[in-house]
Amino acid sequence: VSEAGNGELAAIERIRRLLPAAPAGETWIGDDAAVVTGPAGEALLFAADAVVEGVHFDFELVEASDVGWKALAVNVSDIAAMGGRPLQAVVSVVGVGAAMLDELFSGIVEAATEYGCDVVGGDLSSGPCLMVSVAITGTTGERQAVLRSNARPGDLLYVTGALGRSAAGLRALRAASGHLEAPGSRSAPGSGHPSGDAALSHLLSAAYRRPAARVAEGLAASRAGATAMIDVSDGLGIDLDRLASASAVGVVLDTVPVADGATREDALAGGEDYELVFSAGDPDAVSSAFKAASLRPPLRIGMCVQDQNIRRLGAEALPATGWEHRLA
Amino acid sequence: VSEAGNGELAAIERIRRLLPAAPAGETWIGDDAAVVTGPAGEALLFAADAVVEGVHFDFELVEASDVGWKALAVNVSDIAAMGGRPLQAVVSVVGVGAAMLDELFSGIVEAATEYGCDVVGGDLSSGPCLMVSVAITGTTGERQAVLRSNARPGDLLYVTGALGRSAAGLRALRAASGHLEAPGSRSAPGSGHPSGDAALSHLLSAAYRRPAARVAEGLAASRAGATAMIDVSDGLGIDLDRLASASAVGVVLDTVPVADGATREDALAGGEDYELVFSAGDPDAVSSAFKAASLRPPLRIGMCVQDQNIRRLGAEALPATGWEHRLA
Q1: Is B39 within 8 Å of A141 when comparing Cβ atoms?
Q2: Above 80 in pLDDT, residue B10?
Q3: Which residues in chain A are closer than 8 Å to B34, comparing Cβ atoms?
C-alpha cells in the first residue's frame, strides 16, 4: 500500500494488522512495491496505484492521454524505486466515455512503450467519474530489491534530479486556465508564481502532465549499492520521513535542489516529481554507476544519522508535509 | 480485459488494436486472465477486475465485507478459469470511509484466506463512491493455461454447478429490503419470484453476496484435458458465446442446470454464478479427474459443433444476453 499521507497512516496500519505478516524474504505493505515469490520461486515486484478524477487530476488542466500516461508512469516509478524494471501492467478503467477511451489508452500505450512495460489486460466499468487503477509487475533480475528500510547512519542521501517542477507546472496550468485554485485539485502551500517565460511554463506543465519514471536511475542506484530508496511522489519532506522511519535513522539535509521555475516550497512539499531519493555508503560507487549508465550524476543532499528522531534541513526542521490523500 | 458485455466489445476491440500483439506463448487481452512471462521465464497469470458502488453493488443490499469478499473472489475466479491457482493480489480502494475500511478488508482477507491468495499491497484514495480494484497473479504450475480459444467440434461442454443462484439471491435481497428494483443495480430480465422458504432465500442471498471461486474445479478440468474454459460471470448465454467465438465453434446445449429457487432465465442470463464452463474431449477423463479431487462431477450440458454460427439450446436459439457493463 503506498502511503499517501500521514492522515492515511492509521488506515494503512489497520490494514497491515488485518493481514498476515509477510514470510521471510518477502516484503508486503509499506514499500513502493511488494516483493513476492513468483511461480518459479524467484522474486517478483508487484504494485498498484489508482488515479481519480477530481482528486488526482482535473480535466480543465489535463487531457485524457495525460491521465493515461500518468496512471502508468506512477506505477513504473514504484518499480523503479525498488531498483527494478517493469514487466507487465493491467488496467482497470471506471467511468470512461467511449469518446475518451482511445485518448486515455493512447497515453497509457505511450508510457508503456517508453518504459518497456506490456499492457496485457484489465477491465472497463461504468462509474460516476474517471478512475484508472493500474497494477504492475517488475523484476530486479539477479539483484536484490532496494527497500525503504535498510538505510544506515552515515549513509549519504541523493536525489536523482532537482525538485518542484510538477507543483510549479500545476500552478502554471491553473494560471493559464484562468483559475488559481481548482476545486478538488492539489494545491501547494505557500506557492509563489511561475516564471512568465512561456518555454519554461511549458516545461513545467509537461513535468506535471507527463512525469518521468526513473527506471535507469533506480537501476544505477541499485548497482551503486543503494541501501534504501523511495520515489518522491508526495513531497521530499514526507517521502524522506518515510524512508527514515522505515530505516530507523535520522536525516540531515544540507540542501534541497530546486528546479528552475519552482519554489523551495514546491521542492519540499509539492510532490509528484517522481525523482528517486536513495541512501548509499560509497560516493565513488554512486558516481561510477551513474556514469557507466550515461546518466547525469545524482545530487547529494545530506546524510543519515543515528538519532532516529532527527529530520533537519540545515539549521531548521525538515517538515514532513506534502500531498495527502484524504479518506472520504 | 474481461469483456463485460457485447456493448463493450467495440471498446475492447479498439483497445486491442491500440496495443501491440502478444508475443508467441503469451495471451493478453480477451481471456479471463493474461498469460505472460514471469521474471524467470515461466508462465505467469495476471488479471484485474474492479467493483463499483451503484454499478456492481448497492449498500442497501450488501455489507462492506461482502464487497471485499466479492472483489477478491471474482479475481480468483479469473485465475480458476485458466486452470490456475492464485498467488498474490494488490488492492486499490477508492472512496472508502475510515469507518468502513476494516469491514471491507475483513471480507478481502476472508476470501484471500479461503483461496490461499496473499494480499500484498495496493493503495487508498478518496473518491465519489466506493470502488475496489483488485489485480491478481496466479500459476498453472507445470500445466498449460486453459484458454477460451481451443475448443474443438465434438468436444463435450460441462458446467461445474447449477446456475442462477446469484440472480435469484439478488431478487431475494431486494424483496427483503422492500424494493424490487434498486437503482443502478443489475436486474435479471423476466425474473420470477424467490421461494418463500427462508433457508433457501438465505442460501441464494449468500450466493449473490459471497460467490465462490471454483479453483479446485478449474484445476480438475485442466487435468481432465479441458480444451477451453471460462467462468460464468455475465450469464451462461453470453459467456458461452465468448468461448464459442474465441474457439470458432458452434455450441448446442441439451440442458441448462437451474439451481433450486432460480428460474431458467436466471440460469441463462443472470450471471455472477462464477461456475466454470469448459469443453473436453474425454468424458471418462473428466469423471476421474473430478473424482480424484473429491469434487462433485461437473454437469454435462451439450457439445461443440463445426458450424461456428450455431448457438442452440434444444430446439431454440441460445440468446447471448446477460449482464452488460455500460460505458458511461
Answers
A1: yes
A2: no
A3: 88, 90, 120-121
